Amino acid sequence: MTLAAALLLGACSAEEEAQAPAPRPVRTITVALNQGGETASLTGDVQAQDQVALAFRVSGRMIERSANVGDTVKAGEVVARLDPQNARNALRSAQAALAAAESQLVKATNAFDRQDQLLKSGFTTRAQHDSAMAGMQSAQSGVDNAEAQLKIATDNLAYTQLEADGPGTVTARGAEPGEVVQAGQMILQLARQGGRDAVFDVPAALLRATPAEPIITVSLASDPSVTAIGRVREVSPQADPVTRTFRVRVGLDNPPEAMRLGSTVTGHVKVAGDARVEIPASALTAFNGMPAVWVVDTANETVSLRNIEVLAFNPASVAVASGLDAGEVVVTAGVQALHPGQKVRLLGSGA
Fold first, then answer.
1. Domains and CATH numbers, the chain
2. Residue 102, Cβ neighbours under 10 Å: how many?
3. Are 28 and 345 in contact (CB under 8 A)?
4. Which of 5, 43, 197, 224 has the highest local Cβ count within 10 Å?
5. Residues 6 or more apart from 74 whose CB is under 8 A from it?
6. What's the average model confidence in pLDDT over 151-172?
7. What angle is formed at CA 93 by the lines to CA 90 and CA 99, rounded to 5 degrees?
8. Within 13 Å of residue 200, how many CA atoms lie on the same side as its CB?
9. pLDDT tens, 168-187?
10. pTM of the entire structure?
């Protein structure tokens, strides 16, 4: 009986060994620490670094506007004119007033000279002498005033011509010939030649996450192959009351000709982020009602479940806040068919 039992047990053991399941093949990845950060993209447009609204310094009826939107103008070029008739009349009136004042000054000066000679000879009184002096000084003040009025009238006549203060391109117009315009009213908007800005409306959260003095890659929305490098030149100190975003102007370094004024562009900037572990979303399962992953013991080639804390989740990947360390091996495919302690055969990395 003893020998038979031994033979029977040996046969059963050999049969069990023959029926032992083969290690299950699984696909895995080795956990790596992602340094964090991502690329943020915003849409904006190209504007001139320096834009100026050209306006008359006096009011009047505009009789001519020689420049239109899209035209290129030179420094000192006359782009619009007001009716100069009233200014010319004012100039003639000021010239006449000056001539009259100068005549009064000659008369008062002669009177004072006579009184001065008479006083030295003792043939007049000090009161008469002082009165003549006051009259001469008053006449001199009248001449000074008339000269100032003539200068104002001369300038006002010159102001009936609107000149470009520098070379540039007209981007907008604010009045048409025949209209009565007021002093300071925008007639033409001029984008001065020189630098160009890419202008974006940026959320406050992105401003906080952006590093100091970031380098921004700007590309044309219609042709992403046309790119330029830019740096932040100006950030609005106050948020827009409606959108609650901040206007940011990015100065472009040597922008290509294709980036014309008004072109729609996309800005790309690397924003700061904390270092974190990321795994494919397919590796995620659940254990004890919490997120978990299958971790491979590479020495024994067995798997075990481990709970993790998820920081962020999207359809492609999962950011892990805690529970995994860099260098550990995690199963990414076939997680539903595993059980703790199961032997596995690694197929390599991949999701």
1. 23-49+194-351 (2.40.30.170), 51-82+162-191 (2.40.50.100), 85-158 (1.10.287)
2. 16
3. no
4. 197
5. 164, 167
6. 94
7. 145
8. 26
9. 899 899 999 999 999 999 99
10. 0.58
